[in-house]
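Hello,

Our lab assistant flagged a job as stuck in the queue for most of the afternoon. It eventually completed. Since we weren't sure the result was trustworthy after the delay, we are filing this so someone can double-check. Below is the sequence as submitted and the structure that was eventually returned. Let us know if re-running is recommended.
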Amino acid sequence: MVIGDLNKKFGWVWLLIGPLMGLYITSRMTGMGAAYNAVTREVMIAGQNVTLYMGEPGIRVVNRLLHVHSGLLAILNIVYGLCIDNVNLSDKTKRLGSILAVVGAILVTLSFFFLQVNPLRTLAVPFRALGGISLVVAIVIITVGQLRKKVQ
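-- returned structure --
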């Protein structure tokens, strides 16, 4: 099995799971009504009613962040899987980078999910920090491999 296959398979599965999670989360939030909708306020300016956009509640922002990050990190893993086998690094280092990219994607995505679940909120920051560090190390590994490939 090629090392990058793990990332490619994970990335495609993660892309599939993202919309399914979105459907589930949205179905759970439909009863929340105004707590999930954008906040607007009607004001009268010069005799005209104007609707001002006041922003979005935190739960909607977090839900959006969850979906954006899960999709982008899935695509990152697919690209990582396509590139990691072609760099000039040892198999151990390639495998480490591959695993860190997958773990980072899972931890970052879960951290945004945890923000929406009260008992798990305290885990959100550590998961995001560990996931971010994992992704940065994975990217450094593949960058070093790409630079070594071009020099030699």
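-- support follow-up --
The delay was a queue issue, not a problem with the job. The result is valid. The CA atoms of residues 15 and 71 lie 6 Å apart. The first strand starts at residue 39 and ends at 45.
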